[in-house]
Amino acid sequence: MVNPFGATSTTDDVLSGVNLQGKRILVTGVSAGLGVETARSLAAHGAHVVGTARDLNKGELATAEIRSGAANGGSFELVALDLANLESVRICAEKLLAKGVPFDVVIANAGVMATPFGHTADGFETQFGTNHLGHFLFVNKIAPLMRAGGRLINLSSAGHRYAAVDLDDPNFERTPYDPLVAYGRSKTANILFAVAFDRRHRERGIRAAAVHPGSIETELVRHLDPSHVQKTIDRINLQLAAEGRGSFQWKTIPQGAATSVWAGVVAPADEIGGRYCENCQVGKLVPDDATINEGVRGYALDPNTAEKLWEKSEELVGESF
Description:
Blueprint: H1 11-14, E1 24-28, H2 33-44, E2 48-53, H3 56-62, H4 64-69, E3 75-80, H5 86-99, E4 103-108, H6 126-142, E5 146-155, H7 179-201, E6 207-212, H8 226-242, H9 253-266, H10 269-272, E7 276-278, E8 281-282, E9 285-286, E10 296-297, H11 303-317
Parallel strand pairs: 1-2, 1-4, 2-3, 4-5, 5-6, 6-7, 9-10
Antiparallel strand pairs: 7-8
Helix pairs in contact: 2-9, 5-6, 6-7, 7-11
């Protein structure tokens, strides 16, 4: 069957005719942007959505429309989770485990991008610690709640092309800090985490995938220099012109959240398991030195690196899974 969805598909397109009654879905980072739209669209189609936010007051304001727009038996609740603080991660996970209510899908959506050099509460470089280690610990802690046939969807980015992971110096203790390199490392880690999680849980029918939402103007880009953004767009446009394609277009937030929703509840599990998805399709493998933004670099899907990252992540968070 031909996949009818693509770069301009929205969450409502992807979920047209889909009834999610009885499904429980967890979405991290629902205080802005993609997380809010992801949660909204799922609740509007009948799912019970548990959203997480670091700032509950901000989260409550951002998700008011989700509660009012829930339909077909859908509902929404908000819980506190600060991925940059492993104590907060453990507290949130333990509360969910104590409730013992299962999840069909976990969408690890929250993240930061190109932040100034800094550290999480536990001393990890901000982007690697928040985007990867926080989710690594949280998802593994609540994995017993995931139903057979469930899915984990990790939000990655085309930004993974900026850098592979550096397991010898994850906190830039010996490497000059570059915000985009750090972002690239963390987004590559998101993909590798999906690869390793998929391998460990597929026998239970649980599959994991990473997704690139596309280029969207959300709060995530607030640390980027506008001149750098424009230079990147100019470079992309030159390449698109050389290929005879149209110019770069920002995605809307509903278009950006569509791939998360597609991979989470619509796409065939075996099609997306252990893969990288973009534009509501499985992304193609491209050379590591490719200049194009589309596709996934081989180092981000390498199973050996995925295992080494898993072991390093266990060491850093102090727990084995």
